[in-house]
Amino acid sequence: MSEARSGIDLAKIWGRRVFPLVSVLALVVILVVVALLTGMQEANLLRALIDLLIVLALYLFSGISGIFSFGHIAFVAIGAYTAGILTIPIAKKDQLFEMPPLLESLSTGPIAAILAGALVAAVAAAIFGLAILRLSGIAASIGTFSILVIVHVVAENLKSVTNGQSGMTAVPMTIGVWALVLAAGVFIVIVFLYQSSPWGLRLRASREDDVAAQAVGIRVRGERWIAWVGSAALAGAAGAMYAQVVGTFAPGSFYLSQTFVIITMLVVGGSRSLAGAVTGVAVITVINEVLRRTSAGFTLGDLKLQSAPALTPILLAIFMLVLLIVRPSGLTKGREFTIPHRREVAGKSTRGRDVADANAGK
User: Fold this and answer.
1) Backbone angles phi, psi at 305, to 5 degrees
2) Residues in a beta bridge with 168
3) 305 - beta bridge partners?
4) For 268, which DSSP code?
5) Cβ atoms of 248 and 92 closer than 8 Å
6) Alpha-helical segments (H) within 88-162
């Protein structure tokens, strides 16, 4: 009986705690391998992986708290500019920019720049969060949008630090595909551990009913602040990696179009699950890739369709609209990947054993 019980416990741990994490990690690796085998351009694959990192960061706050943030791209920008300042060689800073002497003398490696980007973004989020998280619902979402506007305006006008609208150049491009895959794995593990932790469970409770959560003693504002700062740190790290992938960027790289794409990916996959975040990025990336490969025009019977790159955002919008009508909770319905069938343990199913144990305890 004890051996059967231990078998049941291991099955529960595997099915409820290990399999959802392993399946998401495996999905990312499989998708990257398929993309490489099918000839996807490296630049597009790198961009897709950066999008995945940003969506994971957004999910850590918005997916678990239920408050949609329109300002997370601002933290990506903060991380990118921080990494740019720290990684551009001092000699090139002197030639290309007019930075203050303190910033001009700073120089670090890529990993230190990523950590610095995460730290600076987290500090900024901690300050913004003191005001934003006093709000809730749509008011909080509008407040996060103000952060996006503020950071964008500062990036355009603080020329001594960001080089204004001319943007940053000469950032060493030191991060490749598999480095981003590793980073995605780290992000997924962090997010999964958080959502399974007491902090994550309390935040999810506030998402379902914040009044009831407060009634049982949950400090809703404090839980949201923790997730907000942690989410911004991941977004800042993603921004730092983005800077070291593209090498050149400007304030326009972190504004409305990028915000809507990231939110679309999260909503399409299912905003209330980690599996949904990964699925949304995969689906939108595949659609973009298909549209890119057919942008030269194709023939459908007697109908010849010419190149129309401008139709891409329109087709994505139509797809999202149809999906929201057919499946409002996203492709995964806000659920994690689980084992389809419960396996037999000691001649009885797990569910049957649980019922028998419950009845025996009455």
Assistant:
1) -105, 125
2) 249
3) 298
4) H
5) no
6) 90-96, 101-104, 110-132, 137-157, 159-162
CB under 8 Å to 308, separation ≥6 — which residues?
295
Task: Give every CB contact of residue 330 below 8 A, 6+ residues apart in sequence.
Answer: 267, 268, 269, 270, 271, 272, 276, 279, 280, 323
> Which residues, in sequence order, are CB contacts of 208 under 8 Å at separation 6+?
66
Q: For the residues of 187-201, what is the DSSP string, one character each?
A: HHHHHHHHHHSHHHH
Q: Which amino acid appears at position 78 of this protein?
A: I
Rounded distance, CA 189 to CA 183, Å?
10
- pLDDT at res. 102: 86
Instruction: Name the pTM for this structure.
Output: 0.87
Calpha distance 28→16 (Å, rounded): 20
Distances (CA, A) of 219 to 123, 199, 203, 216, 229: 21, 10, 9, 9, 16
Q: Which one of 8-12, 53-57, 136-140, 355-359 scores highest in mean pLDDT?
A: 53-57
Which residue is listed with tokens 């999906």?
Answer: 323
Question: In which element (H, E) is residue 355 found?
Answer: helix 350-360
Better-predicted residue by pLDDT, 29 or 347: 29
Instruction: Yes or no: say if 58 and 231 are a contact pair by the CB < 8 Å rule.
Output: yes
53, containing H or E segment: helix 42-58
Termini Cα distance of the chain: 19
Q: How far is CA 67 from the centre of its chain?
A: 15
Q: How many CA atoms lie within 13 A of 278 on its CB side?
A: 27
Burial of 42 by CB count in 10 Å (0-12 exposed, 13-18 middle, 19+ buried)?
exposed
CA distance 203 to 199: 6
Q: How many CA atoms lie within 13 A of 299 on its CB side?
A: 2
E strands within the chain? 298-300, 303-305, 344-345, 348-349
Tokens 């990506």 label which residue? Answer: 76
Contact 157, 164 (CB under 8 A): yes
Integer Cα distance of 267 and 63 in angstroms: 9
